[in-house]
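Weekly sync notes, structure subgroup
Attendees: PM, AL, DS (notes)

Item 1: joint prediction request from the bench team. They want all two components modeled as one assembly rather than separately. Inputs as received:
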Amino acid sequence: MPTGSGANQATFAGELSVDGSTVSIRRDTDVASERVSVSLPAVVSVTDQTGEARYPAFKAIMGAKKKPIQTMSLADLGVDAAQVGWSGASSKVVDVSPTPARTAGTIVNDDGTGAAQLADFLAGRGFI
Amino acid sequence: MSEVLVLAETTAAGVRKPTLELLTAARALGEPAAVVFGDASDQVVSQLAEYGATKVYAVGAPEMQEFLSLPKAEAVVQIAQASNPVAILVTSGPEGKDVAARVAVRLNAGIIPDATTVSLDGDTVSAVQTVFAGRFQATSQVLRGPAVVTMRPNATSAEAAPASAGVESVDVSVSDGAKGAKVDSREPKVSTGRPELTDAAMVVAGGRGVGSEEGFGVIEKTADALGAAVGASRTVTDQHWAPHELQVGQTGKTVAPSLYLAAGISGAIQHRAGMQSSKTIVVVNKDAKAPLFQIADFGVVGDLHAVLPALVDEVAKRKG
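Output from the run, pasted for the record:
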């Protein structure tokens, strides 16, 4: 989205704070924990680490049903029809098939020898 | 053969394993050319060449490290415009996804995120994605532009295929618009001495059944006995019994090690989505009805706090 819109972007925020016109986030990659700041306006995406969702009260849910819905056409948005839908698609799905099912193997009850049997299994497959 | 751009991820320890997997996948599409941001040391270049890179584009501009993602996207776009690759392969991670999305938009190219395999038929690139929490495999074709594909770590295994790689230094111009998100600090993850979760050949993971933060210690001891990485279910990380980055599952890491030993994890579909491609799955749980037993190669119905310490002793005995 920010490409072309001119807004700054900060993505995958695990922590988020706003100070005046600056948004600061923490984001965790596989190899580092980064602190990043952007100035507003900004598009910020967050992970499920930022906090609990605030669920709406019944009254707010009912109120939402009465909100006006505005319909916009492609022309309103200045989008060429050839850029969207099938004609604008840059990829297409050609096949969807179920993942082959895994079947259960040997299950033993631990009668005191469970760990030994497990060690035998692991050794048999070369993990020990 | 056309070039295939591979965005390399490096740390102080060298090239990360997911990058070696990308190079392996890239060889099926064309000639792998790696893009390295920062220091393309001799060690990095020789590692990339060992896995089939025939060229290394070294982007030394300091903006690559100082700002989030966008300067890298601009660099990749400039390299792609000059070299006209058939595909651009990126590791699926926070940064890789960021960069890949920007690159695809700028090049007006098709993108397939989170792919597990990639192939070339004529000049059409296809990729397979695992969807609906692992229950279906979707195959998609890219219809225009160089195919931008982000690939999940561990979906393919890295295989060496030595080539000789020439290094080409690339001067890129970074626009002001790409300097919006400043990286104020970057702290490398502290090494625990254990293998990295997404790279590991063996993973020992604990769930609700460990019972407490102290209880999670038995998972760590078992992992250390086997030389495995440590993983956790969402319950464990939400309770702060283990750090968030150890979470395996739909909202955490996806792993596919040779051995996945799950203890005290019942096996919600969200957890299975992150580990069901593991080659061998072992389950220890006192509830015989735990759904994870259905996909286990070997299972022990019993208390993990009894079975795992006994297993640690058995392993020590056998290793002599």
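Discussion: DSSP finds five helices and seven strands in chain A.
Action: AL to compare against the crosslinking data before next sync.
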